[in-house]
From TrEMBL:
Organism annotation: Iamia majanohamensis
Domain of life: Bacteria
Name the UniProt record assigns to this protein: TetR/AcrR family transcriptional regulator
Higher taxonomy: Bacteria, Bacillati, Actinomycetota, Acidimicrobiia, Acidimicrobiales
GO molecular function: DNA-binding transcription factor activity; transcription cis-regulatory region binding
Xref: PROSITE patterns: HTH_TETR_1 (PS01081), HTH_TETR_2 (PS50977)
Keywords: DNA-binding, Transcription, Transcription regulation
Annotated region of DNA binding: 32-51
HTH tetR-type domain boundaries: 9-69
Amino acid sequence: MAGGRPRDPHAEEAILRATLDLVAEVGLSGLTVDAVAARAGVGKATIYRRWSSKEALLFEAVATVAEEPPSPDTGSLRDDLLALSVPLGEKLADPHQGRVMVEMAAAAAQDDALREVQRAFVERRRASGRAILRRAVDRGEVPADVDADLVLDLVVGPAIYRSFLSHRPVDADLMVRTVDAVLAGLAVAAPS
């Protein structure tokens, strides 16, 4: 029988929640393991036994609360893209979640291991978008040679740009206008 106390799942949940709350309040640069431990009501050693760094802790915290991406199949490319993109816009518009996403991107830009974690996180979400476009090809809504990755970049790019760089509002209306502009660019008639 192994020594030591078994892991407390409630402590882990408290640590992950405290991490997200603190990053939203003070940013990743202001986040400390001491502050997470105090907010979660655990010792620092409890945190360091599970995570090697505050960045690794942040990525796991985000991964545990992030819902699996939707894989909508409404029968319409436009509606599917909206079902995929509007929730992202809502997350970016939320001051808490939006700040956490910006902090994650900044951390990944500085750390190869975190960049790989972020890449895998994003890739799981892009797979849903690629499936949407494959179904649209099958329905004849877009040409078979459509560049699915470019379409996805065009759909989410304006929201990311506004959140991360220009600090302009992101809302459902932006996502609708973006999807309609992308579809117009693909020569797909978007219903009025």
